[in-house]
Specification:
The structure is a single chain. By secondary structure, this protein is α/β, with parallel strands linked by helices. It has two domains: 3-142 and 195-328, Rossmann fold (3-Layer(aba) Sandwich); 145-192, no CATH class. Helix content is 37%, strand content 26%. The strands form three sheets. Strands 1, 2, 3, 4, 9, 13, 14 and 15 form an eight-stranded mixed beta sheet that branches. Strands 7-6-5-8 form a four-stranded antiparallel beta sheet. A hairpin with a 2-residue loop joins strand 5 and strand 6 (153-162). It binds S-adenosyl-L-homocysteine (SAH). S-adenosyl-L-homocysteine (SAH) binds at residues 11, 19, 25, 33, 35-36, 68-70, 74, 97-100, 103, 136-138, 141-142. S-adenosyl-L-homocysteine (SAH) is lined by residues 11, 19, 25, 33, 35-36, 68-70, 74, 97-100, 103, 136-138, 141-142.
C-alpha cells in the first residue's frame, strides 16, 4: 500500500485508528502541544482573532473554526480573551473540525456554555459569513504520499510485508504530480513528499476565505522552502519510534511544506505570510502577557510561566521549528 493509505489506516481506522482510540496528548500521552504547555499560547491566538475581527470592520457574525482542536484547550484560552471584548465574543459561532470521538467529548466539557457545532471535515462549514480558521498541529496529521527517485524517474514509495514485518518498497512509476524541476545534482534514492489531503483541505479553507472574507492561521512544524527529504516520523511516549512499528499506537506526522501552501493561497488571490512561532507570539504580546500573569502568581508559578515562555519561543525549542502561516483576503 502507499504511505498515504498506511498513514490513513494508522491514524483514522474506525476501530484501530490512533486518533479514534485515545487522547494522545499531555505528559501521560505521546506528545505535548503548545496549547497544552501554557494558556499563553491560546490567548495569543485570541489576540490575533480579535485583531482580525477589528480588521474586518467588527462584523456582527463571524464563524470561528478550529481544525483538530485536541482537548479544546486552545479554543478555551482564545475565548477567555474574546470575552474581554463583548461585541467580539457575541459575534462568534464556533465550529470544531474533529474526527476523534474521545477528543470531541473532552472539547464538549471544556467549552461548556458556548454554542459549538462539530464537523467531520471542513466542507460542511457554512460560508455565509466571514471565517476565521485556526489550527495547531492539524495539517501535520493529514497523510502524505512519498516518492523515491530511481535512475530516471519518480516511483511511489510503498509499504508491504516481508517475513512478518512491515517494510518499505518501490511501487509504480508516477508522472504528472508536481515533482521538483529536474536538477543536475545526483538525486538517486532521494525522497519527495507531497500531501494531496493537506493541500485539498487547505484549498478548501482558502476558497471559503476568498468567498466570504476572513483569515486563516495554521501553526505547525515545517519548512518555508520546499525541499527533498524524508520527514515521515512516528512519536510514542514523547520519543521518536520506527514509523512501521506500533501501527495505530503511535502518532504519525511529517513536516508541512509551507511554501506550497503559500503558493496555493496566492492561487486564490489571498495574501499569505509565514513567521516563526516566536516572531508571531512576540508580535501578539506574549512577553507582556507573561509579565502580567507573573504579577499575580506565586513563586513556583512564576517559574513555570518563565519556563513555558521559553519553551514556546526559544530558538532551540519550539520558537523556530514551528511556523505560523497567516492568510488574509
Ligand atoms: N490542536 C491540538 C491537537 C493537535 S493533535 C493541540 O494543539 O493540542 C491533532 C488533532 O487533529 C487531534 O484533535 C485529532 O483528533 C485531529 N485530527 C487528526 N486527523 C484529523 C482529520 N483528518 N480531520 C479532523 N481532525 C483530525
Amino acid at each position: 500500500m502507499s504511505v498515504e493509505t498506511y498513514w490513513t489506516l494508522c491514524l483514522s481506522h474506525p476501530e484501530h485508528g490512533y486518533y479514534i482510540k485515545q487522547d494522545p496528548l499531555g505528559s501521560a500521552g505521546d506528545f505535548t502541544t503548545s496549547p497544552e504547555i501554557s494558556q499563553l499560547f491560546g490567548e495569543m491566538i485570541g489576540i490575533w482573532a480579535a485583531e482580525q475581527w477589528n480588521r474586518l470592520g467588527k462584523p456582527d457574525t463571524l464563524h470561528l473554526i478550529e481544525c483538530g482542536p485536541g482537548r479544546g484547550t486552545l479554543m478555551a484560552d482564545l475565548l477567555r480573551i474574546a470575552k474581554l471584548i463583548p461585541d467580539f465574543a457575541a459575534s462568534l459561532y464556533i465550529h470544531l473540525v474533529e474526527t476523534s470521538p474521545k477528543l470531541r467529548n473532552k472539547q464538549k466539557q471544556v467549552l461548556e456554555g458556548w454554542n459549538v457545532i462539530w464537523h467531520d471535515n471542513i466542507s460542511t462549514i457554512p460560508t455565509a459569513f466571514p471565517n476565521l480558521i485556526v489550527g495547531n498541529e492539524f495539517l501535520d496529521a493529514l497523510p502524505i504520499r512519498q516518492f523515491v527517485f530511481d535512475k530516471d524517474g519518480w516511483f511511489e514509495r510503498v509499504i508491504g510485508a516481508s517475513n512478518d514485518a512491515l517494510t518499505f518498497g518501490r511501487g509504480g512509476q508516477v508522472s504528472g504530480t508536481d515533482f521538483p524541476a529536474s536538477t543536475k545534482e545526483n538525486i538517486q534514492g532521494q525522497i519527495f513528499e507531497y500531501s494531496p489531503a493537506r493541500e485539498a483541505c487547505f484549498a478548501e479553507m482558502c476558497e471559503k476565505v476568498s468567498a466570504q472574507g476572513g483569515a486563516i492561521l495554521m501553526i505547525d512544524y515545517g519548512h518555508t522552502k520546499s525541499a527533498l527529504g524524508d520527514t515521515f516520523q512516528a512519536v510514542k511516549s514523547h520519543k521518536f519510534v520506527d514509523v512501521l512499528e506500533n501501527a495505530g499506537d503511535a502518532d504519525l506526522t511529517s513536516h508541512v511544506d509551507f511554501e506550497r501552501l503559500m503558493h496555493k493561497a496566492l492561487d486564490y488571490k489571498l495574501a499569505a505570510s509565514c513567521l516563526n512561532q516566536s516572531e508571531f507570539l512576540m508580535s501578539c504580546g506574549i512577553e507582556q502577557r507573561a509579565r502580567q500573569l507573573k504579577e499575580k502568581a506565586m513563586q513556583d508559578q512564576r517559574r513555570d510561566i518563565d519556563l513555558a515562555l521559553q519553551r514556546l519561543t526559544a530558538d532551540d525549542q519550539m520558537g523556530t521549528l514551528f511556523k505560523v502561516l497567516e492568510v488574509q483576503k
